Every structure is written in C-alpha cells, then in structure tokens.
Amino acid sequence: MDCLTQKIELNVIIPAIRKGFIETLEKKDLSDADISRRLDITKAAVSQYKHRKRGKKIKFNAKVKKEIEKSANEILNGKNADFEISRIIGILKKSREICIICKKECSK
C-alpha cells in the first residue's frame, strides 16, 4: 500500500471506524436503512460492513473502541457522522496510535 497517511485514513481507518459505529448502532436495533441514513452511506455499504467485507483490516484498542461507541451514541442523538469520524482520527493522531497503524499497513 502507498504509505501516505491520508490514504491509510481513507482506506483503512475510516472504514474501521464506520464498522464500529455500525456494530454499536446495530445493538440499538436500528434498521440498515436508518443506519445508512445516519452515517450518510448506502444500505449496501452497511451490509458490507456487517458481513466483514469492509472495515476489517485493523482492530482498535479499548480506549478507541470506547470513543467509537461514544460517537455512535452521539450520532444516534443527531450529531454528524463525519464530524465524529474526524474527532476519532484526532484522538488517534494525538495518541500517536495512527503511527502504529501506518507502520503496520506500510510493512505489508
């Protein structure tokens, strides 16, 4: 993989965050249509995340998973999903966790 941080964010990190959102929202008994509307993605994309065709390349640590759950609940309360994705990426950058992810992805 090309090792630009932005490409890794786009192709690996954002899908993994969305997958976490979907897992949390699914526990709230939301339909795929409602999840897709709240995340501003297609129902087909929701299905692909649920069936592990997207967002499966990385696993986040417990702290990041907790933040993803917090964001999913904020989305449920009307917050913008893209804003919440940016917030989590900011956390990954601040903690330097993003560097670990990039090193792993670049070594493949």
Biggest β-sheet, characterized? none
- What form results from the Cα inertia axes? globular
**What portion of the residues fall into strands of 2 or more residues?**
under 5%
- Total beta strand runs: 0
Helix amount: over 70%
Q: What's the alpha carbon Rg, rounded to whole Å?
A: 13 Å
Distance between the termini: 7 Å
Low-confidence stretches: none
Summarize the structure.
This protein is mostly helical and 108 residues long.
Index terms:
108 residues; mainly alpha
Mind sketching the topology for me?
Blueprint: H1 5-27, H2 32-39, H3 43-50, H4 62-76, H5 81-94, H6 97-106
Helix pairs in contact: 1-4, 2-3, 4-5
Description of the structure:
The chain has 108 residues and is mostly helical. It has one domain. The chain has six helices and no strands. The protein has helices spanning 5-27, 32-39, 43-50, 62-76, 81-94, 97-106. Helix 1 crosses helix 4 (62-76) and helix 2 (32-39) crosses helix 3 (43-50). The longest helix is centred in the first third of the chain and has 23 residues, at 5-27. The protein is globular. The mean pLDDT is 92.
